[in-house]
Amino acid sequence: MSGPQPNRPSDTALAAAAGRELATFSRVLYERGWMPGTSGNLSRRGDGARRDVALITASGLAKGELTADDMVAVHAETGVGLRPGAPRPSAETVIHAAIYQATDAAAVIHVHSPHATAVACRYADRGRPGTLPLERFELLKGLGLADPSRAEVPVFPNWPQVARIADEVAEFLKGADRPPPGLLIADHGITVWGASLAQARDRLECFEAIAQLITLGVPPAGGPAPRSSPALTAPTFPGPARAAAPTSRNGHRHDQHD
Ligand SMILES: CSC[C@@H](O)[C@@H](O)C(=O)COP(=O)(O)O
Ligand SMILES: [Zn+2]
To answer: Where are the annotated coiled coils located (predicted)?
Structure first.
């Protein structure tokens, strides 16, 4: 994004390219089922001299059908629209702005992916922000953490006033020492950031895959999963090389070690 401050992203070739990139990522995430209805929003911050500007998806549109003209230029760190009368920016622009203000992020993605949303519902500390500790998961290495063995993922209440969520996000990020690049909103979804849309998307995939394991019964932290967890009972495969393991009356398989 260079040249005069864009009123619409199509005002400059670079802004149009950024708008197309946002539309492409949005369509792919929509097609995964992570942006049902008109949910979800994406933004990308300008480079260099254009760092004060971010392009964000317009509010209330089907996120699988966006074009570059459906992106709105806002002030990156306040979320204030740069052109009155332009399409309305995402209702959650202030959350993106809080992240741009407190981190080095150049892209932010918010989706309602099912597993992250389920985990956000289950681990919410009702009425106040909390954190969900994550340990052990190999995919923590995909989050760019200083210490990939552990992350404390914040979980925020889904206040009806988005500005209140944004204030709590800003407060958390201000006080956190190298926080993970993602946050959960109870009963709502997940927001993830990175140095590019591709990096934010990769991190989002890692968060969602970890959340899927948690919804399958893997404890988020604190040692290995209990052997008795029904969702984690190992499948048995028939074959001549190994006799079937004896089974106790409660149906649990006794492992044989040879
Ligand atoms: C389909 S309602 C979902 C919205 O309330 C919101 O959570 C959301 O993700 C999309 O808001 P938007 O203003 O379109 O960016
Ligand atoms: Zn949302």
So the answer is: none
